[in-house]
Amino acid sequence: MSLIEIRDLKFTYPGAEKPVLDGVHIEIEKGDFLAVVGNNGCGKSTLCKVLNGLIPHFITGEFSGTVLVDGVSTLEQDVGVLAKKVGYVYQDFENQIVRPTVLDDASYGCLNYGMTDYKERGLRALDRCGLTGKELDYIWQLSGGQTHLLALAGAVALGPEVLILDEPIAQLDPGHADRIYEVLKSLNEQYGKTIIVIEHHTEYIADYCKNVLLMRDGKAAWKLPAPEALSRVEELQNSNIFPPQVTIAAHHLCKKGVLPQVEQLPTTVEQGKQYFHELSFREQPILRKEEKKTGEEVASFEKVSLSYRSVKGDPHTVFQGLDLRLRRGEKIALIGSNGAGKSTLMKLMIGLLKPSGGEIKLNGKVLKDVKPEELSSMISLVYQNSEEMFIKDSIRGDIAYAMRVRGVRNWQEKTEALLTRFRLTELAGRDGRLLSGGQMRRASLAIGIALNPGILLLDEPTANLDIATRKEIMRTLNDMKEITETVMIATHDMQLVCEWAERIIVLCQGSVAADGTRDEIFGNRILSQRVGIRPPEIFAMGQALEPCALCYTVDEFLKSFQEGVHV
Question: What is the pTM for the complete model shown?
């Protein structure tokens, strides 16, 4: 039975030259667990905002077509009524948290609707979302994953048939990501909720979703069962979507005739064990380990401590006696679970946070003695949430701002050069907060390097990005040495770490748990389990076939196994 029916849906944002949704026809069955995929800017979020009435009741534009949810037209009901039919957890879910304590927030929506059993509904929602025992905690005591679950609980408490989550695990470590999806699976299977996720992580689609909807050119290209959808490797890649790495490897071997054609390509490591079982491992020549760089020190932490005062309980200690040294020219990845201190360390480096003990130095100068105008040319941070980088009403204004107020010569020409470099010229007059996720990311990078800082810090630079935009960010990172000498990224994107970083620093419980090359980090299973990091899926596939295999990319996997196929 169709719970959602969409017929000939068209929508154009004010001032846009063409519609973002252009004749969408789809039906979504009750009880589905649907992944919506497509390149950045294809209309995924716009489509989902139609379902809960935000479009066109709150976000205006040219709207036509029919959208029925449980037989009710979204045009005939206001947003308040539709919220009890369609719950929505947004990409910036922190903005949905409005009350100071967990139960207070989970039950707030129900209280706002005048439901007499609001507290019971809140408790029930917290239980279903795995937050029992946290009812009286303050929201700032929660981890990132728990905060996301609280936003979900607030939607669940209203009892909607449909739950929509926009990029639910984009900024979460593997443990928290697994927990989110296990909660969604329970809501779907035990409580009959229809789940819709906008998702770039196809390995989670393979493990949890029933169907996949591909959005392309403002239309629904197709809706297919997840295994069949994920096997369409070339079509997905042409739409700037990463199929699971296991599936990409299988497709390549199948296409080359190394392994036989099959109706269904493997989409998980477990399925891959069977499909790849005929392959034998050929160890690749070990490249001489590069000597650890001993270049000039550009930043240092010496016995640095940092604690946050807490309204409830003891102060929260983030760092205690942290020692760390960064050298000029390094490409560093900073990894660790949510709450390990990655973003905090970066904020300490740019002076946004002050250590409670110890000393931080940049280029040999004690950070607290560096003047702000000098600091901005030494180091720059591009925030995890790109919209925090925008303070003017246009991208051109945002890029130019720091150069203009610092009196940089030829700042107008440099602004135009950055707009060109980051393919932003056509967007130069647009407000950065109204761009797509990929466009925001490009714009935030341009802002971050405007003053040519010697050290560039990037917090989750590839979160929420499709293949094309992610590759573009990767190219930009590789080109950064033309502009900035030392780059550090904080990320959960292990593909990015393995493809780009020369040095990997692992944070855990306020200290450096490991510091080394990718083999030293990911080759240590005990370390991975202890600190909650997970190598790329293809690494796990290689290890499942041969425990000594260290394959970080699909190409490395194919070189290690394809050439050794049994004859």
Answer: 0.85
